[in-house]
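In the current project phase, the collection of sequences with tokenised folds has grown. One resulting record follows, to show the layout:
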Amino acid sequence: KHLLIASGGTLYRYLDGVFTSIKTGLKSDIFDYVNFEIMSEDVAIITNGVDNVMVYNGESIRDLKHDGYDSADSDTNKAPRGKIMDLHYGRIWIAKNNMLYFSTSNRNGYDPDDWTTPLDEETEINQHGGYISIPTWDGGKIIGMKVIFDDIVVFKEKNIFKVLGTYP
């Protein structure tokens, strides 16, 4: 229903022939996004790698949190910043430098606001988010990520990797 446009550090919504500013003071106008559903609400999750990852529900915009939708808002309670994101098996995946971060797939459903890692891998398996380090020791950083069939493929400057499986 909405078209989001970034220009001059401002994010605009275009709806019914009208441009409306929904977020100002952004440091980059180059965004990646995924469509998602949070608690039966359709949202767009958007990132530019510099500013906090944001959630737009058609009316308002907020930062994507690290520790749950209802948790306190603070500078340390934000999802990881990355330029590239995709959706794979209900998890949000964000790439940054040599790291892949993924949101939770907890008992109550997929929660893009939960990026916490499990405290106990055996009893909390697949209930939290996490990360995968993809170092190559050649100085290459992640330049692309795409879901291809059932796998995530990560493109680095001199290498290509495939993430296998759907569980941490």
